[in-house]
Fold this sequence. Notes:
- The chain has about 220 residues and is an alpha/beta fold.
- The strands form three sheets. The protein has a five-stranded parallel β-sheet. It has a two-stranded antiparallel sheet with strand order 3-4. Strands 8-9 form a two-stranded antiparallel ribbon.
- It is elongated, with a radius of gyration of 21 Å.
- It folds into two domains: about 1-150, Alpha/beta knot; about 170-225, tRNA(m1g37)methyltransferase, domain 2 (Trp Operon Repressor, Chain A).
- It has seven helices and nine strands.
- It has helices at about 20-25, 65-75, 95-100, 120-125, 140-150, 200-220, 220-225, and strands at about 1-5, 30-35, 50, 60, 80-90, 105-110, 130, 185, 190.
Amino acid sequence: MRIDIITALPKLLESPFGDSILKRAIQRGLVEVHVHDLKDYGLGKHRQIDDYQFGGGAGMVMMIEPIFNCIENLKKERDYDEIIYMTPDGKRFDQRIANHLSLKGNLMILCGHYKGIDQRIRDQIITMEISIGDYVLSGGELAAAVVSDSIIRLIPGVLNDESSALFDSFQDDLLAPPVYTRPAEFNGWKVPEILTTGNFPKIDDWRHDQAIKRTEERRPDLLED
């Protein structure tokens, strides 16, 4: 898989891809992540990428030309399965979307900034708009990192135990059950006895029951869906 991220602030994306699971996935050649500085396509000697909005109003708008030129330049090299725009009014990102995108070959993610991007880019070029929640960030960079992380960890070979992702919260519309590790008793607090029996069918049943219980308590809306 290859992910191309277009941003006005590329340094914001250095840390998320420079450590832990994502770093190892990149080093092992399981995914390519390329960050493109939109200012490289800016206009004039000041590399302008934003301007005042037509009709007046507070806030600057990312201009159509730099975005269009950057996207078209990338499309000369390869076809993209999705061109994604990170925006608060996009479709709410969830595990189903992550699973869907993890099967793609080439993804492009455009990070919004300022007041947003010229609507013509959204109308004519963007194929998917994604929100990570009902709140507003200063820009789409952190949201793009969140989406990328959730996708990349699903790629075969990224996690040491590939079955691990199958039991994450939301994979089956349930929250994950509680987990424990050694020691079996600490400060008088004991691990549930069933987990130490080695009876894996019963352990699976216990975990499923606990997942349902936790979901009922914390996210009953998932069971309704």
